[in-house]
Amino acid sequence: MTDTKTAAPDKAKPAPKDAIALLKADHSAVSDLFAEYEKTRSNPKKKALVAEICMALSVHAQIEEEIFYPAVKTALKDKLLVPEATVEHTTVKDLIAQLVGVEPDGEMYDAKVKVLSEYVKHHVKEEQTEMFPKAKTSSLDMVELGARMAARKTELMAQAA
Fold first, then answer.
1. What pLDDT digit, counting tens, does each position of 101-147 carry?
2. CA dihedral defined by 155, 161, 18, 10, rounded to 10 degrees?
3. What CATH architecture is 19-160?
4. Structure confidence by residue, pLDDT tens digits, 65-98
5. Helices in the chain by DSSP H: which ranges?
6. How many other CB atoms are found less than 10 A from the CB of residue 61?
7. At a CB cut-off of 8 Å and minimum separation 6, what does 83 contact?
């Protein structure tokens, strides 16, 4: 994947400007990785994709739980959306734990990845149709929140590398 833009030759994409743009970019990137997984039959490629998916989801969940969800919960005085999303993260983390470092060994491995993919799609849909619109209309400074989340994401990715 080569970047042909001349404005920023050293960056694949400019950093999203606000919290919701950052989270949507993560959602899109993970969706693309799941689609790539569906197409591959190579076990080494499957393992590499799953490692990338699991790391992306783990970092994404952590920045949501540490920064985004507490801010949204406070701003919206939310007692439903954030707790539900947090419970969904627990299930995602459980599936990640079942996949990380495991050799692709056939149908059960593929089934776990498929369930993870479907679960993440459901979670993303709820965030994008329910939580994000409400958060956008709140008093939250999405640019400031996005900057904090981007900095934390960079830190977590560096730790994982």
1. 889 988 899 999 999 999 999 999 999 999 999 999 999 999 999 99
2. 110
3. Up-down Bundle (1.20)
4. 999 999 999 999 999 999 999 999 999 999 999 9
5. 19-39, 43-63, 69-76, 81-99, 107-126, 132-136, 142-160
6. 21
7. none
Residue 138: helix, strand or coil by DSSP?
coil
Nearest to 93 by CA among 122, 119, 121: 119
* Both structure tokens of 4: 């042909």
- What letter represents residue 113's amino acid? V
Its pTM stands at 0.87
* Residue listed under structure tokens 């950052």: 22
Burial class (CB in 10 A: 0-12, 13-18, 19+), 112: middle
Give which of 40, 67, 61, 45 is closest to 147, Cα–Cα.
67
Helix axes 107-126, 19-39, angle to 10 degrees: 150
- Residue 160 is predicted with a pLDDT of 83
